[in-house]
Design a protein that fits this description.
Layout: H1 4-35, H2 38-59, H3 62-65, H4 68-89, H5 97-125, H6 131-159, H7 161-181, H8 191-195, H9 198-211, H10 213-244, H11 250-274, H12 279-295, H13 303-331, H14 337-365, H15 368-388, H16 390-395, H17 406-410
Helix pairs in contact: 1-2, 1-6, 1-7, 2-5, 4-5, 4-7, 5-14, 6-7, 6-11, 6-13, 9-10, 9-14, 10-11, 10-14, 10-15, 11-13, 12-13, 12-15
């Protein structure tokens, strides 16, 4: 059974994620209804993406220098303040572009700070042998938010309106703060990292992300997969469903929902699967499952077959993410856990705009089927690269509980220690 502190923290973050997602969707729909301009909506999404991308590596050193519980409280307080400011800015029912963009940037910074803290906090809330189930539950809750937030946001927008939705979100964030405040575990930083200057800590985090071979390899693989799967879900599926097949707009919603449902299933399957199958083989197979799921969209299958392909794609992502996160967290020394976790998320984010640009041009000049074939081929190639990587193979030996401070022992030069 997982600890009380983990349950408190994940419950609070589930409420915050659900409320934040519903509020952002409600705000997007409100902007479209108020202005009738897709450009305003696109600009706001760009502000959030850029602010998150820039702030994540800059805020990452804080996760290794301050008590992580206090940083989690600060992150949720920043988001709560942002929701309050958004309520004030939108209270007259008139869209104010610059003010709204500034508030969205504040919300992005709060979200980035929590992204840097949340993963690095897990090993202090659960025992190392429980990291796999803890990561699986975390991923399942995140997938559940993606699955249920759109219909809830639609219901809230119709029945409550934007202002009431923001009030409900603020109440959920207050509950989140209460849950995080109830954590009793010692989340203070390592003494060495707590004394480092911010600039030195930032540079050292980037150096470790490159100098530790499995981190570097897995970051490249993660960026490649995200650069393929995110465009597939948000760009290629609508092109295939609406333009190439003429299947209707409704399918553009429930096919990505099938991907989210697959992620939820994959997170639940990962732990029992690791007890029966070699983890390295299961990880490679999970990436191949993504490739197979994507390639189904290149064939003229029935819609139900496409739904199965979308689910298979998400299931592979869920299994891969659990193994990736649990082994890396267990192997990382506490003094640099926040920075390495943030750098892995940052590189994953970096792959998204690149993939959207490449596959956007490809979809414009070819077809959704061609895009699916290309994406499937790239993802399959990453599975081969993962299978051939000796450093990843070493990392995935045994169980996460066996990997304590593995990076420090296996790659001492990256930490400035003579071997």
């Amino acid at each position: 059974m997982l600890s009380r502190d983990f349950t408190m923290f994940r419950t609070g973050q589930f409420l915050a994620s659900l409320g934040g997602r519903c509020s952002f969707l409600s705000l997007s729909w409100w902007i479209l209804a108020s202005t009738g301009s897709k450009q305003q909506f696109a600009e706001l999404s760009l502000v959030f993406s850029v602010a998150s991308f820039v702030s994540l590596p800059l805020l990452a050193p804080l996760a290794d220098r301050w008590a992580r519980k206090n940083l989690a409280l600060l992150a949720d307080a920043i988001v709560l303040a942002g929701i309050g400011l958004l309520f004030i800015v939108c209270r007259n029912g008139v869209y104010r572009g610059p003010e709204t963009a500034a508030v969205v940037a504040i919300l992005a910074c709060g979200t980035s700070l929590m992204a840097a803290v949340s993963s690095s906090l897990l090993p202090t809330l659960v025992r190392r042998e429980q990291l796999g189930p803890a990561v699986a539950i975390t991923g399942a809750l995140q997938a559940l938010v993606l699955l249920v937030a759109p219909p809830l946001a639609g219901l809230a927008s119709d029945q409550l309106g934007l202002q009431r939705t923001l009030q409900v979100t603020a109440a959920l964030l207050v509950a989140t703060l209460w849950c995080t405040w109830g954590i009793r575990s010692d989340t203070r930083p390592d003494e060495r990292s707590g004394q480092q200057a911010w600039t030195r800590s930032l540079v050292e985090g980037g150096h470790l992300a490159v100098g530790i071979r499995p981190e570097f390899t897995w970051n490249l693989i993660g960026a490649t997969i995200n650069g393929c799967v995110v465009p597939f879900s948000t760009l290629v599926i609508p092109v295939i469903v609406v333009h190439d097949r003429g299947l209707g707009l409704a399918a553009t919603g429930w096919l990505p929902a099938a991907v989210a449902g697959g992620v939820l299933s994959g997170n639940r399957l990962a732990t029992p699967l690791s007890e029966r199958v070699d983890v390295r083989k299961a990880t490679v197979a999970s990436i191949l499952a993504i490739a197979v799921g994507v390639v189904t969209f290149a064939a003229p299958f029935h819609m139900w077959a496409l739904a199965v392909g979308a689910w298979l794609c998400g299931c592979g992502m869920g299994i891969h993410n659990v193994y990736c996160a649990s082994y890396r967290l267990a192997a990382t020394p506490a003094s640099c856990r926040g920075r390495l976790s943030a750098w892995s998320k940052w590189t994953a984010q970096a792959g998204m705009p690149v993939g959207l640009g490449i596959f956007g041009v490809l979809a414009q000049h070819t077809s959704g089927a061609v895009c699916s074939l290309v994406i499937s081929g790239i993802v399959a190639a990453t599975a081969v690269a993962l299978a051939l990587s000796r450093s990843i193979s070493e990392l995935l030996q045994g169980r996460p509980s066996d990997r304590e401070d593995f990076y420090l022992v296996r790659y001492p030069l990256a930490f400035g220690i003579s071997s």
